[in-house]
Amino acid sequence: MIVRALGRVPYDSTYAAMQSFTAERDAGTPDELWVCEHPPVFTQGLAGREDHLLAPGDIPVVATNRGGQVTYHGPGQVVAYPLIDLQRAGYFVKEFVYRVEEAVIRSLDVFGVTGHRVAGAPGIYVRLDDPGSHALLPQRPQKRLPGEPLPAPDFVGLGKIAALGIKVSRHCTYHGVALNVAMDLQPFQRINPCGYAGLQTVDLSTIGVAVSWDEAAQVLSQKLAATLAP
């Protein structure tokens, strides 16, 4: 996998570049991982509803073709875009999502934080009262009986630290994952993050972890490259 550190780049042009890369790649094109930071922007997924945009104000809103609802990108957040040929990698979309989340969990562990999955809600969450606790969440994904629906997501006591949104075209992925490091979290209060009213969003700095953007980006890049390998 080729890792490209893009620095701080506009969202619109990066989105267009991902689309072009994916449309033009062939069976021999190496996979890439783009790691960057964006100026303030709200992005809407395909399922995005206008009523989840509470008060965007002067922050632009960009409609995208990724899955999911509205989220926010801004300075102090590491955004990683894995451009993976799943057919060549040998795994399916569900496992791709699992592997991306696992990379975030392993990255957080480097900084002494335990990341958790919540049933029915993509992304990674932390305990607000004890971010380093390894105790299993009652809200964690668990085996269900055939035909049993997913439970309604339960975010009590949790903060979301990483958001996930992907698109797959011709077996190839783009869009990706955003890890909050040290950012202005106020814009998250202008939306229902990922479509959930009242969902608290946190970053590493607010849970007591002092780490630079560069260090967090390097760790996340390493973990993504390892977990997404065929």
Structure commentary:
- The chain has one domain: BirA Bifunctional Protein, domain 2, CATH 3.30.930.10.
- The longest helix has 18 residues, at 93-110.
- The chain has four helices and ten strands.
- 22% of the residues lie in helices and 27% in strands.
- The strands form two sheets. The protein has a seven-stranded mixed sheet with strand order 1-2-6-10-9-8-7. The chain has a three-stranded mixed sheet with strand order 4-3-5, with no helix packed on it.
- With 230 residues, it is α+β, with helices and mostly antiparallel strands.
- Strand 1, helix 1 and strand 2 form a beta-alpha-beta unit.
- Record the strand order, biggest sheet: 1-2-6-10-9-8-7
Gross morphology:
globular
Structural class: alpha+beta
Strand fraction: 25-35%
What Rg, in angstroms, do the CA atoms define? 17 Å
CATH topology: BirA Bifunctional Protein, domain 2
Major sheet summary line: 7 strands, mixed
CATH architecture: 2-Layer Sandwich
Tally of contiguous helical segments: 4
Please tell me the overall pLDDT. 95
Name the helicity range: 10-25%
Low-confidence stretches: none
CATH class: Alpha Beta
Query: Which H/E pattern describes the elements?
Result: EHEEEEEHHEEEEH
Oligomer: single chain
CATH homologous superfamily label: Bira Bifunctional Protein, Domain 2
- The beta-strand count equals 10
Spatial gap, N to C terminus: 10 Å
Number of domains: 1
